[in-house]
Amino acid sequence: MTATTLLTGQTLTFNARPGLTSPEGAAIYDSAGGVLIKGGRIVATGSTAKLRAAHPDAEEIAYGDALILPGFVDAHAHYPQTAMIASWGKRLIDWLNSYTFPEEMRFGDPAYASEIAGRYLDLLLAHGTTTVCSFCTVHPQSVDAFFEAAQARGMRVLGGKTCMDRNAPEGLTDSPQQAYDESRALLDRWHGVDRLGYVITPRFSPTSTPEQLSALGALWSENPDCLMQTHLSEQTDEIAWVKRLFPQARDYLDTYEMYGLLGENGLYGHSIHLEPRERDRLAEVGAALVHCPTSNTFIGSGLFDMAGLVAEGQRIGLATDTGGGSDFSMLRTMCAAYEVAQLRGQPLHPAFLLWLATAGSAEALRQGEHIGALAPGMEADICVLDLSSTPAIAQRSRRANDIWEAVFPTIMMGDDRAIRDAWIGGNLVFPKGAR
Ligand code: GUN
Ligand code: ZN
């Protein structure tokens, strides 16, 4: 008989998107809740007392007043940039040329790719992140390394080979045909295997010729259930460069749209400096915009218009953008999202931030039926937060009058010390003592 496990503590999940400034009935919170797990999935949620009574044989893991949440979902990252995160002093294009491209060159070595993929996923788990959608490098073996490492840990992850055929060093470029052939072979090998999904991945318009964008557009039209990820309108210098490279395009988004790379399964990282036409088109097709706030402040890119984009009905996810982003932590990322929104006069409620980091990102990645919520049928990917992980946080959360006041200090000041445990598919993967 499959074992049944009952996690008890405070529980929090969302059954709809909360408002920007209030939980508005979207939050399901229980101060004495439980999550019943069997066969890798959540089979019941509810009050501790009711679940204990109905399932006396379940093994109970009692988390006391820790907060049980769906695992965090990082909707945009570059795992190959793990070892050069927090590199000093550059803006986007210089940062790519000085730090990123030299590091990505190293992934031609499959042993190095495996080492970093394993290190990266372990760092994610230590930070309570259970799913990520990552760029790999141009090397097919960097994709194999990433999926093999995720498979070994039982994780639901998404990723793809980063395609570039111009404006990048020779060791990091492919050709339109090679981008198509290698992406297709990787898609055939990995897409839908275990909990893995392949993502068609042109890096961004400046590093692809129209021929390469077209080839990847064709691959996407042949595999429309795959996601496609890229970057859009991150820095003003980059936008000016795109205008020079694609004089016939109406705007940056059009450089994707013209070549079949705009669609409802598209993920557009950053999306900061958008023109009205771009915003209209993104909303019309139901594409997802991915907000990367630590990256946007770290590389000096700009302030994402969360309130305006939410009001337009855009689909939005949240992400670290490791290593343009300055931390692996989705807590730090929520903190930065709060601060960026404050600079635009838009305070974001902790419910909205937590929704973005769980269900919101899961839905942006079209994974909302599998992950992102504590509900029967969902895969049991869970993060348990200690709301008093440091003396500074503890003294503030002791004053809290409700769960939102209790969790907000951890969002603003918390790091991996706040991650009490992470569960993947019903298995405890990161016991505190192992750190
Ligand atoms: N634009 C194109 N490539 C990248 C990258 O690796 N990181 C970030 N932040 N922006 C990009
Ligand atoms: Zn990125």
Helices, strands, pairings?
Blueprint: E1 4-14, E2 27-38, E3 41-47, H1 48-54, E4 59-70, E5 72-78, H2 92-105, H3 110-126, E6 129-135, H4 140-153, E7 157-160, E8 162-163, H5 176-190, E9 196-202, H6 210-222, E10 227-232, H7 236-245, H8 252-257, E11 266-270, H9 276-285, E12 288-291, H10 293-298, H11 306-311, E13 315-318, H12 330-343, H13 350-364, E14 382-385, H14 391-397, H15 403-413, E15 419-424, E16 427-428
Helix pairs in contact: 3-4, 4-5, 5-6, 12-13, 12-15, 14-15
Family: Belongs to the metallo-dependent hydrolases superfamily. ATZ/TRZ family.
Pathway: Purine metabolism; guanine degradation; xanthine from guanine: step 1/1
EC number: 3.5.4.3
Question: TL;DR?
Answer:
β2 and β3 (41-47) form a beta hairpin.
The CATH architecture of the largest domain comes to Alpha-Beta Barrel
Main beta sheet strand tally, sense and closure: 9 strands, parallel
Number of folding domains? Answer: 2
Note the gap between the termini.
32 Å
Overall number of strands: 16
CATH class of the largest domain: Alpha Beta
**How large is the radius of gyration?**
21 Å
Q: Quickly count the helices.
A: 15
The 3D shape can be described as globular
Residue share in helix? 25-40%
Please mark out the parts with pLDDT under 50 across 5 or more consecutive residues, or reply none.
Answer: none
User: Would you identify the CATH H-level superfamily of the largest domain?
Assistant: Metal-dependent hydrolases
Strand content bin: 15-25%
Which ligands does the model contain, each kind named once? guanine, zinc ion
Which structural class do you get from the secondary structure elements? alpha/beta
The average pLDDT score comes to 97
GO cellular component, one term: cytosol
Protein name: Guanine deaminase
Keywords: Hydrolase, Metal-binding, Zinc
EC number: 3.5.4.3
